[in-house]
Amino acid sequence: MNKVYSVLELNRAVNELLAQDPVLGRIRVRGEISGLKKYPSGHSYFTLKDEDAAVSCVLFRQASRNAPETMRDGIKVVLMGRPNLYDKTGRFQLIVDAAEEEGLGDLYQRFLKLKETLEKEGLFDPSNKKKIPYIPKRIVAITSEAGAVIRDIIHVLQRRFPGISLLLIPVPVQGAGAEREIAAAIELANFLKLGDVLIVGRGGGSLLDLQPFNEELTARAIAASDIPVISAVGHETDFTLSDFAADLRAPTPSAAAELAVPVKAELLFRIEQLTSSMEQQMYKAIEHAGHRLRPLAERPVLSRPEAIVERQMARRELLNHRLSSIWEKLWAHEENKLQSAVQRAEQTMRIKLERQTARRDKSHETLLALSPLSVLNRGYSLVRDKEGVPVISAKKLKQGQAVDIVWHDGKADATITKTYPGKE
Amino acid sequence: MEEKQQQWDIPTEMTYEQSIARLEEIVTLLERGETPLDQSMELFREGIALSSWCSEYLMSMKEEMVKLIDAEGAVAPIESMEDIHG
């Protein structure tokens, strides 16, 4: 009793006492986290409190892995830890070895059991999944009117597909009875055919917060929806029964909006691409056809159609020529025949003529002897009037009449000066 | 719209997705270059009609309609983002 302790000795002695206590040495405490501070060292400090009291807590880096990632102010937890006096300050604190969200164990057990039941029922059957429309005519969002979720959805939709139509059915997304309103909203959307795709969801939260989306009622309403449902509950790591029941699970509400609509600008670009490549192909096809056509078009028959006429004319000419040469030959032949006929005729004629001439000559001589002209040869002359009629009588002549006097070697004009009728 | 669709000869029951798929098919056919020219011309005409229809369809979705439905099932437009409590 005489020993005087240093402060440090005091604190260490109390610590030893605490550590040796069969109850206090390792104790479970229920409370709500507040004033949580995480340090770069990896240690966290916070206050655990309930309605009546508060206690400082420290969660060292090594123990962090035994605490849920969702550790934050306001959540109710059950801590496993060791009460302790900090040597240097004497401050009473709880060194936390492990933490879990309160009720998680129970809820998780319920979740697994329900999941198994619904799975057996075929509620999550992939063959029951409906196709999300490529471009919905109207999207119905079933979520809280408050908070970031609907804002995120609107932002994403406006960015990806300006002009898309969105209808919000506001529902509470946490707390007792929320599942009834969510299920009712899904039924309403189907009954009134409000849209062609539903986004059902909420932002991140504790397992307890997500509970409405793990309720049988919600899962059944989603599975029964004729309108395809995209679920978007909490963070990427959160899987709820709603997610399993939905036609498509989005890791986050923003992602749900992305899954709901394509990017309009990309679609327009794709159309443009297709159109231009179609035009190009058409261009090519026409050009190709042109390549085949050009040599044909350049063939003289097409490039100089008059050539056809010319050729026909040349042919005609040739035919003409041949025809005329045949004609000529025929002609020549006929002519020959004619000529020889003529020759023969001429000859015959000549012979006849010669014979005739000979006969005539003979007659002629005879005749000549009889002719007055031969008489003239003997010195006689002949008087003829101007009509050529021999004047055989002096009586026929009149005084002053012009007559011709013909000798054997010429003639002379004469005028009758006086006639003397009667014999000489 | 009705008249235009007839003019473009797009079956009215065809969705955007089907239309764009057909357009893609046409481009592939043309790219293969095995169709005779007059048939290509027909395909091209159909493709142009589909392309116009598709972009018209996208562009026609212009009315910004963000609406809120209340407990009684009545629909009210949300004028701005401020109407959403955040």
CATH class of the largest domain in chain A: Alpha Beta
The whole-number mean of residue pLDDT values of chain A reads 86
Structural class of chain A: alpha/beta
Rg of chain B (C-alpha, Å): 20 Å
The coarse overall form of chain B would be rod-shaped
Tally of strands of chain B = 2
Q: Give the overall average pLDDT of chain B.
A: 72
The biggest beta sheet of chain B reads: 2 strands, antiparallel
Rg on CA atoms of chain A, Å? 73 Å
Shape of chain A: rod-shaped
CATH hierarchy: architecture of the largest domain in chain A: 3-Layer(aba) Sandwich
Multimeric state: heterodimer
Rounded to the nearest angstrom, the distance between the terminal CA atoms of chain A is 244 Å
Based on the model shown, name its key terms.
heterodimer; A: 424 residues; alpha/beta; OB fold (Dihydrolipoamide Acetyltransferase, E2P); Rossmann fold; 4 domains; five-stranded mixed barrel; five-stranded parallel sheet; 13 strands; B: 86 residues; mainly alpha; two-stranded antiparallel ribbon; 3 helices; 2 strands; disordered N terminus
SSE blueprint:
The complex is a heterodimer of chains A (424) and B (86).
Chain A: H1 7-20, E1 27-38, E2 44-49, E3 54-59, H2 61-64, E4 76-85, E5 92-101, H3 104-121, E6 138-143, H4 148-160, E7 165-170, H5 178-191, E8 197-202, H6 216-224, E9 229-233, H7 241-245, E10 248-249, H8 253-260, H9 264-298, H10 300-303, H11 306-370, H12 372-377, E11 382-385, E12 402-407, E13 410-415
Parallel strand pairs in A: 3-5, 6-7, 6-8, 8-9, 9-10
Antiparallel strand pairs in A: 1-2, 1-4, 2-3, 4-5, 11-12, 12-13
Helix pairs in contact in A: 4-8, 5-6
Chain B: H1 2-8, H2 16-32, H3 37-60, E1 65-69, E2 75-77
